[in-house]
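Comment on this:
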Amino acid sequence: MSRNEPPGGVFGLSYDDESRVFEALKLLSTVIIVVVGVWPIYWMAQLAVTEYETVEDAVTVVPTPETFTLDNFSVLANPEMYTYMFNTVVVAIGTIVTVVVVSLIAGYGLARLSFPQKENFARILLIGYLFSPIVIGIPLYQIWQSIGLLGTRIGLIIALSALSMPFTVWLMWKYIMTIPEAHEEAAWVDGASRWRGFRDVVVPQCRPAIIAAALFAFALAWNDFTFAQILLPSTETTTFAPGVLRAMSQAQFLPDAHLMAISLVMTLPPLLFAYFMQSYLLKGFQVRAL
């Protein structure tokens, strides 16, 4: 570049200098995102292992051996907390199984079968996301009460599965479309039925999409508050998030350190699931046609 030639960068810099600026901005934005995302979790974890008397006074950024304790997790031994945790696990597992099975079958039908208005039917599935859970929860309360599902874990599983499946059906549909139909045809030539071809050929190749759908359903069920608060009015069947709120509203004193211990236990399973399954998740969500 000659001396009289103006710089070619967007910011009036040379291309080399502008590239360095962009790299620095990318690094800075990454650091900000990590800090904003990780700091609340770190602070929650620190308070969970700090003596609750110290939490009420002052908390250091780095935990000290003098204030470190695991006694805060003893709140989980409370029978009510154990009930909330058990119900949450049952609801999460039930939602995962329901969502994965139904989404696989529905996605396979959309990908392999031809029927009138198939595209419009698939688009109609997404209409459910136009309404917030609180809007859907109120009519569900009356419907579940009339058919005997109010206050039952199966009622909450059905509601959460219905909320999850529009996305997971689309995910399965588009993922199965990337699997060559010739694989199934080869199985049919060998005498396999359509069901066996689906079970032995399609399902094993859908493992990344299955894990992605399972994580989506798990996160929705594990972190659900609105549906559980509306559809599970009894303490015996309620899940963790509304259960803790009810314990606080009933004037049961919970120190901040105990609340952080409970929150940490609720936060870790989705994080660990996503961390150890991240390779499958990336494959499952990277569907070009989606």
User: Anything to note?
Assistant: The CA atoms of residues 229 and 242 lie 6 Å apart. The chain is about 70% helix and 0% strand.
